[in-house]
Amino acid sequence: MPSGYSSREDPGQMKKNKQSMADLKLRRLTELNSRLREDLERERIPVSQAAKSIISYTNSTKDFMVPSIWGSIPKGEDPYVVQTSGGCCTVM
Prior knowledge:
This protein is mainly alpha-helical.
C-alpha cells in the first residue's frame, strides 16, 4: 500500500465521530419532542365550533366580497373596484 493511506481510521477518531453523531441525534430528538409537546398543549376546538365562529364573524363584519349577505353596493363605495381617473394618460 502506498504510504499516507490507511485502510481504517484511527479508532479514537471513530469513537469521537460516533459520539458526535449520537449527540446530534439526541439533540434532534429532543427538539422534535419539544415541538410535539408544544403542539399537544395548543388549544383545540371542534370543527363545528370553528365553522360557527366563521359564520358569526361573516354575519357581523361587513365584507363587500360576500354580496349574498350584505347585498350589492354602488361602484363608488366598493373598495375592490378599479377606480378610473378622468383622463387616459398620466404624465410624471
